[in-house]
């Protein structure tokens, strides 16, 4: 990753999340930690590449008819408290947790 040291925490958190979703050679064989805990297979459709470029949807309340509907962001990981992605705005540097993201 090309992010500076303050973002290493995000990379480690993202790695831990992914390790919980991936298969392990454990007892019972070839199950995930998620599957052992929740008794169902994880849905991995939402898995994305760390530090990839993405576009987060801007809330309709904040935009006018002809304004842009998305903003350029960098993917930093997955939200631990809600169903959303953790992204950083390219221009402002603010970290957001939107649910609607285009990769």
TrEMBL record:
The keyword Lipid biosynthesis does not apply. GO terms for biological process: DNA integration; DNA recombination. GO terms for molecular function: DNA-directed DNA polymerase activity; endonuclease activity; hydrolase activity; metal ion binding; RNA-directed DNA polymerase activity. Coiled coil: none annotated. InterPro entries: Retrotran_Ty1/copia-like (IPR039537), SH3_retrovirus (IPR057670). Residues 52-103 form the Retroviral polymerase SH3-like domain. Pfam families: SH3_retrovirus. Keywords: DNA integration, DNA recombination, DNA-directed DNA polymerase, Endonuclease, Hydrolase, Magnesium, Metal-binding, Nuclease, Nucleotidyltransferase, RNA-directed DNA polymerase, Transferase. This is Retroviral polymerase SH3-like domain-containing protein. It comes from Physcomitrium patens (Spreading-leaved earth moss).
């Amino acid at each position: 990753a090309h992010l500076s040291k303050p973002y290493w925490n995000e990379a480690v958190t993202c790695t831990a999340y992914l390790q919980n979703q991936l298969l392990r050679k454990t007892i019972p064989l070839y199950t995930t930690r998620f599957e052992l805990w929740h008794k169902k297979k994880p849905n991995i459709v939402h898995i994305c590449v760390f530090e990839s470029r993405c576009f987060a949807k801007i809330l309709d309340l904040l935009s006018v008819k002809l304004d842009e509907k998305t903003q350029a962001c960098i993917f930093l990981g997955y939200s631990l408290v809600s169903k959303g992605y953790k992204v950083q705005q390219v221009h402002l540097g603010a970290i957001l947790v939107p649910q609607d993201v285009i990769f």
